[in-house]
Input
Amino acid sequence: MYRSEQEIQIDIIVGEAVMALLNEGAAITQSALLQQLRKMARDEHDGARKKVLTLALAEVRDSITALNHACGEQQPPGVSETGNRNTKH
Output
């Protein structure tokens, strides 16, 4: 199966996010993974890597949404239908 360089980079970023959670002793949950990817994107200064982080976040969010819809489940706590954090203003 052929995978583009961008797809490989996205997989690496997701792996880095999971490793960061494991190193912190955090549970690997949908919400935790999304939060870690957001943190990584927020803290990143390299433009190319920030773009890949944004793509990784969108891919994970879309995968979670598709899986939850297929299973008839709701979004993880704090994640809206679009994958954005629900915040009260």
User: Anything to note?
Assistant: The CA atoms of residues 37 and 57 lie 6 Å apart.
